[in-house]
């Protein structure tokens, strides 16, 4: 009859962590997939990806980070700012192409950036404007009015959107380091957007930004992203509140103060981009 304490039972395998673990070492494979991608549906010249989410989540920075990973150098095309507290720096419905090697040559996908969501009424982008953007009714460079949605008689309202004007993938961007970012009011708005996207049969993913600021382990070594219990809990909370499948929530670090790109940051970004492209391709081929 021994009196020693028994060893704790090993933790069961975590499918999400195993999913994340598999990304390492595949940057070139992810990049090659993007470089070789062409939409199978001849009606689609470019997949359209719409970014939305709370203010300060890093939507514009994620767009810039995708561009940086593709160009192999840190870029700053979409204006982003971290000095303004409590309001969105992005003011317009703005679509960005990504240069592919030479002048006038672009990847066959575009990202549209929007003003951020806020919990208060008459602040941030209107949920109805996000719905209209998904349907392709908002022309590029429309200046968003937080107090009212776009009207059909507005000169920037597209009355007859084509398949290329419509959104093919909806990407929700949320910061991992912001406490209580998913307050009840914001959750209601984001759920409303998700339901509208579901009804339009638009696939959805979530991007979890600022993982290095949220978790010291990840800041010390980006490869610790798949070991972080904190990030796992954030993913679980996000999944419970908004309904995203955990394997459709992608942790990334946006380029912020770096001078050069690096493989670990690129790998997480390109892994998410591969998923976005695959979902969009499946969506347009099922129309």
Report mean pLDDT, rounded to a whole number.
86
**What is the helix tally?**
9
Count the E strands: 7
Radius of gyration: 20 Å
Sketch the major β-sheet.
Answer: 7 strands, mixed
| CA-based shape | globular
Q: Runs with pLDDT <50, length 5+?
A: 81-86
The amount of helix comes to 25-40%
Structural class: alpha/beta
Strand order, biggest sheet? Answer: 4-2-3-1-5-6-7
Give the SSE order as H and E letters: HHEHEEHEEHEHHHEH
Q: Per DSSP, what share of the residues sits in E-state strands of 2 or more residues? A: 5-15%
End-to-end distance: 69 Å
What's the SSE blueprint?
Elements: H1 15-21, H2 27-36, E1 47-52, H3 59-71, E2 92-96, E3 109-113, H4 127-135, E4 142-143, E5 169-175, H5 184-199, E6 204-209, H6 211-214, H7 216-220, H8 229-242, E7 249-251, H9 263-285
Helix pairs in contact: 2-9, 3-9, 4-5
What does this structure look like?
It is a single chain. With 287 residues, this protein is α/β, with parallel strands linked by helices. The protein is 35% helix and 12% strand. It has nine helices and seven strands. It has a seven-stranded mixed beta sheet, sandwiched between helices. Helix 3 crosses helix 9. The chain is globular and about 55 Å long.
Features:
287 residues, alpha/beta, 7-stranded mixed beta sheet, 35% helix
Short structural description:
By secondary structure, the chain is α/β, with parallel strands linked by helices. The protein contains 9 helices and 7 strands.
């Amino acid at each position: 009859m021994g009196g020693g304490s028994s060893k704790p039972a090993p933790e069961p395998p975590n499918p999400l962590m195993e999913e994340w673990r598999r990304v390492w070492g595949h940057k070139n494979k992810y990049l090659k997939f993007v470089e070789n991608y062409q939409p199978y549906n001849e009606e689609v010249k470019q997949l359209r990806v719409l970014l939305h989410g709370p203010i300060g989540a890093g939507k514009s920075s994620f767009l810039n980070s995708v561009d940086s990973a593709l160009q192999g150098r840190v870029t700053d095309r979409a204006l982003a700012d971290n000095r303004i507290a409590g309001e969105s720096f992005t003011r317009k419905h703005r679509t960005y192409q990504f240069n592919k090697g030479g002048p006038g040559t672009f990847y066959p996908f575009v990202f549209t950036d929007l003003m951020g969501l806020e919990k208060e009424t008459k602040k941030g982008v209107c949920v109805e404007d996000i719905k209209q953007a998904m349907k392709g009714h908002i022309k590029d460079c429309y200046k968003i009015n937080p107090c009212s949605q776009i009207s059909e008689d507005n000169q920037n309202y597209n009355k007859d959107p084509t398949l290329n004007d419509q959104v093919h993938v909806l990407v929700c961007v949320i910061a991992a380091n912001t406490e209580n970012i998913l307050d009840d009011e914001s959750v209601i708005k984001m759920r409303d957007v998700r339901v509208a996207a579901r009804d339009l049969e638009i696939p959805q993913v979530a991007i979890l930004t600022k993982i290095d600021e949220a978790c010291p382990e990840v800041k010390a070594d980006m490869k610790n992203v798949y070991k972080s219990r904190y990030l796992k809990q954030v993913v679980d909370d996000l999944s419970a509140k908004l309904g995203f499948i955990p394997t459709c929530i992608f942790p990334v670090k946006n380029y912020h103060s770096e001078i050069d790109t690096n493989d670990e940051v690129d790998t997480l970004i390109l892994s998410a981009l591969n998923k976005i492209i695959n979902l969009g391709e499946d969506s347009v081929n099922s129309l």
